[in-house]
Amino acid sequence: MANPAPPRRSGAMKIRLTILCAKNLSKKDFFSKYTSLPDPFAKISVEGSGQCHSTDTCRNTLDPKWNQYYDL
What positions does the domain C2 occupy (predicted)? Predict the structure, then answer.
């Protein structure tokens, strides 16, 4: 006997998204005479909902660590 499908929920559901880190990002400004590193951040948007979030900016690194979460 097959298992019945789980019941469907009606209405909005929430998802928690955690942005942990990035590693070995590429340096975009190859031709700059300055050797400073980028200030990376991550941007999250949910299509069709109008929700848009950004992580904090991590200064002067190619290996940023955020460990931030967003309830979408």
Answer: 1-72
